[in-house]
Amino acid sequence: MAGYRFLPEARRELASAVAWYDSEFPDLGQELARETQRLCALISESPLAGMEIRPGIRRRLLRRFPYAILYATDNVGVLVVAVMHQRRRPDHWQRRA
Predict the structure, then answer these.
(1) C-alpha–C-alpha distance, residues 41 and 47, integer Å
(2) For 37-92, how does the pLDDT look when each residue is reduced to its tens digit (9 = 90+)?
(3) Is 92 inside a domain boundary?
(4) Boundaries of domain holding 36
(5) Beta strands 78-85; 4-6: pairing state
(6) Is residue 29 part of a domain?
(7) How confident is the model at residue 97 (pLDDT cuts 50, 70, 90)?
(8) Are 95 and 9 in contact (CB under 8 A)?
(9) At what angle do helices 28-45 and 8-24 cross, to 10 degrees?
(10) What global pTM score does this model have?
(11) Which of 1, 35, 73, 97 is positioned for an S-S bond with 44, CB 3.0–4.6 A?
(12) Integer Cα distance of 76 and 45 in angstroms
């Protein structure tokens, strides 16, 4: 795969989560950002490893944080559709894909 990119909404979700964690615990938001980058790199290497949650959309869970990366693949690479908190509004992203 060529790499990964984020929908603007997904990028905003990640930025919001990073800001919240940093406001609560110094540098924890940056750990979330690094973990997200790590997982996105893994996804771009093996995009079919994620569980398909609906046709064309797959999910991978972050290890340390209660977030999931929802993504689709196309001829360009991986498109991150949402950076979803697993306990809040789990279906809010569905209008994006």
Answers:
(1) 10
(2) 999 999 999 999 999 999 999 999 999 999 999 999 988 899 999 999 988 665 65
(3) no
(4) 4-85
(5) parallel
(6) yes
(7) low
(8) no
(9) 150
(10) 0.87
(11) 1
(12) 13
Residue 69 CB partners (closer than 8 Å, separation 6+)? 36, 39, 40, 43, 50, 59, 60, 61, 62, 80, 82, 83, 84
Q: Which residue has the tokens 């989560």?
A: 17
Helix extents (H) in the chain: 8-24, 28-45
Contact 11, 5 (CB under 8 A): no
Look at residue 52 and tell me if it is in a domain.
yes
Residue 5 class from Cβ within 10 Å (0-12 exposed, 13-18 middle, 19+ buried)? middle
The answer for residues whose C-beta is within 8 angstroms of residue 73's C-beta and 6 or more apart is 1, 47, 58, 79
Rounded-to-integer distance, Cα 57 and Cα 97, Å: 8
- Is 18 inside any structural domain? yes
Phi, psi (degrees; rounded to nearest 5) at 85: -70, 130
Structure tokens at 22: 């940093």
For the domain that residue 29 is a member of, what is the CATH number? 3.30.2310.20
